[in-house]
Fold this protein.
Amino acid sequence: MGKKLALSLILALILWGIALPAFAEGGKVLFGESFTLRKGETYVGDVVIFGGNLNLEEGGLLEGDAAVFGGIAKIAGTLKGDLAVFGGGVWVESTGRIEGDVAIMGGKLEKEEGAVITGEVTEMGGLSWPKGPFFLPVPLYPRYRPFEDLFGWLLGRGVRFFLTLLALMAASVLIISLWPEQVQAVAETVTKAPLESGGIGLAAIVLGVPVGLVLLIAACLGLLVWLALLIAGLFGLTALAYEVGKRVLERAGASETSPIFQVLLGVALVQVLDLIPCLGSLLLLVVYSLGIGAVILSRFGTYRGYWAKEGAGGASGIS
């Protein structure tokens, strides 16, 4: 069972995009977050953590399997299930109890006297973390080593970025394939009226979230408001990605490329903004504000009158 669990961990890392829904069924999937059960708390279900830590405090109970990618599992309570950890370690305190198998890749198991593990333990090396000088007393060694936490954060951030990128690419390809003319019209609106698009889009975001919450509480209609905002955001992102990808390729001398390829390139370039520390979220807010505003002004790409009336003869200029 231990070898099987270790193998499943490797396969999960390679095929997480396929296996993730199975892990998530009836449980939790966390990205860049830690999962903690305090004394007296119980959770029933599987837990999958990317770039975070699993903390079971004394008196806490987790009834289900747990998988941690790029983080540390600290067990002081009871885990009734299997535990798999990649790129991190497992610390089982004296009060900790794991009623299942434990598989660790790229880390090690630290077990205090009195800790109980009823199943098999499989450790596969590959990563080593810096240790303190041998003459330092043991209590000074941090249980959550900064190098492991940094690795976990980077892994979780990378997984979240890749998942988001794939989802946005899939949605954008679908939109450009079904409504190519409307997407081009929205992109044209952004270029012709950027200030108006940004202002209206920002107002829609700022007002849409609380209005949707009020309607959700009052009449369960808030989901419709949020759904409309989401669709407008995806449509606007597709239009902006199309325009960005097209201009980049034109400057590179590859002007005759398919709109789908232009959108894919644009989505990738736009999503890279999310990796910029501090400013990334603000820049993405600007991007989505422009897109949503252009969608509203152009009525989802069916109306060019707002900006065309300022142009010569109202020509759309769409190639």
Observations:
- Residues 179-314 form one domain.
- The mean pLDDT is 77.
